[in-house]
Amino acid sequence: MPGLTAVDEDDVSSAPRDGAPTADGADRPPAPGTAVPEAPAVPEATVARLPQYLRALSALAEAGSRTVSSEALAEAAGVGSAKLRKDLSHLGSYGTRGVGYDVEQLHRHIADRLGQAASWRVVIVGVGNLGHALAGYSGFASRGFTVVGLFDDDPAVIGRVVGGLRVRPLEEFGEVVGEPGSAIAVLAVPARHAQAVCDRLVAAGTRSVLNFAPTVLRVPDGVDVRKVDLASELQILAFHAQRRAAAPAHRPSAAGPRGATGAPAGPLLPHALHRVEEVV
Amino acid sequence: MPGLTAVDEDDVSSAPRDGAPTADGADRPPAPGTAVPEAPAVPEATVARLPQYLRALSALAEAGSRTVSSEALAEAAGVGSAKLRKDLSHLGSYGTRGVGYDVEQLHRHIADRLGQAASWRVVIVGVGNLGHALAGYSGFASRGFTVVGLFDDDPAVIGRVVGGLRVRPLEEFGEVVGEPGSAIAVLAVPARHAQAVCDRLVAAGTRSVLNFAPTVLRVPDGVDVRKVDLASELQILAFHAQRRAAAPAHRPSAAGPRGATGAPAGPLLPHALHRVEEVV
DNA sequence: AAGCGTTTGTGAACGCGCGCACAAAGTCGC
DNA sequence: GCGACTTTGTGCGCGCGTTCACAAACGCTT
User: Fold this and answer.
1) Which of A63, A141, B166, B230 is the most buried (most CB within 10 A)?
2) Between residues 54 and 73 of chain A, which touch chain B (CB distance below 8 Å)?
3) How many H helices and E strands in chain A?
4) Tell me, which fold does domain A44-113 have in CATH?
5) Which residues of chain B fall short of a pLDDT of 70?
6) Are strands B145-152 and B165-169 parallel, antiparallel or unpaired?
7) Which 8-state DSSP code applies to residue A196?
8) pLDDT, tens digit, for every residue of B57-73?
9) All structural domains of chain A with their residue ranges
10) A130–B279: do the CB atoms touch at under 8 Å?
11) Beta A224-227 vs B224-227: how paired, if at all?
12) Residue B70: CB less than 7 A from any atom in strand C
């Protein structure tokens, strides 16, 4: 395999927006119990942006900034400043009025909220094409995630060492995940096996699943599933591309592409890049 | 490089292909006449769900169903039936009132709208960890996407053959992409190079980008960028997991898990699975 | 042909999230 | 200490998307 620098690094980033995150959907109506333990109730849309803010803050900290205005941080994260302020206010903001936000403090605060303080245990199930790549993905470690187990059912794969970890049979899954909910499972198995494997994971105490298989997973209440669907993303792009081709001339507004202003248009190609390999 | 069986599979079903090659066929229901191609204006949220519907339809077709009710299809796609009907109505629905939808016809219709009729050309930039996996991802081909080029800047990677394609230097990018907008670029390079590489791709005529790097890409108007951020997904799961840990007993409502009803709870583990390797 | 059950398509209400705009709050300069 | 400037925090209105509920449309049976 290609030797790659495991560089990783952070950056800046942001969420283009929303449009269509993954599945998502149905949120429960409120109202169950009586006394509510008092949930700060952070909107989902806000939660989805927190990682971006965190990355932007990391970059700023690395650049030496002590404080940031909502304007600057929003710019770095690619969102509107008002939205950012409102998002932060949901976390109980700690900004100073005439100054801005303390970079380090805000970073710590968001990191705490995202549970980054504790190093989350991640288990990758399905060490095939993608699972293999994920096992070697350095971006996880830098975000507080530690891959503690690789699982597969193929005898040809079991026993191999990937990214420093031995691939184990699914039967040993229970030995690796600790307390129910203490680990996040990454599902990278073929679609037709996804549900069955997911059931096993859940039975073993898994409460958080990141699903790469193009299938709708049925899980009991209390289990959180997020989906990453590569083919769907391409199909969505294809939809817009086709629409663009159909109505070439204009359609500047309407639906479609993410905003994004910048990009001085036709700048010359910035050459000096090397080692463009390691992923994301 | 891990030898993996390239098993794949996934869907199949009706042959998407048919007559009209690229260029938008005259599919539009109304408007034969004169001017405006008249954009039916399909909501973004709907577009994002079309791939799911398409998959569900593929499965149904394979299972032999001729027609489906909105109820059944919605169930298979994991959404509400009302939402599904409204979504389909945006495409100019072709359902029959007392019966439901013709599976094959609806499949063809959605596939057309997604541009699946024409086989989209996909270019992968950055053949590192993830790029390598994506190059071997068979799920693309089955959705009408053909990987026509692999690019990188690392001399150690250039020249290698991955998934039957030779990795070429970025300089040759222009030779592979055809008409502007005719290809979709998949960005799997380190975050710090993403913007620079993206600029080059756009300059070469790329109009659709799927970005795996955790960075905000600035692109000119008319360029569509979608982002897949693995670490963010984990962080969002971690947020919910932490919240759950904080208020253990309940919180069945609140934000969180995707809907999904089913899962008979604690079914015994379905054993007979083998070859759980190849990815998604 | 008429009635009945089924299922679509959609009008309308609801709720969430976004953006605007502004007052409160704090800093800096004098 | 006071005024002017800066920046946060948020109340309000708007638009999109979801959900409900129902009338119209269709097949099937009689």
Assistant:
1) B230
2) 54-55
3) 8, 9
4) Arc Repressor Mutant, subunit A (1.10.10)
5) 1-40, 247-280
6) parallel
7) H
8) 999 999 999 999 999 99
9) 44-113, 120-230
10) yes
11) unpaired
12) yes
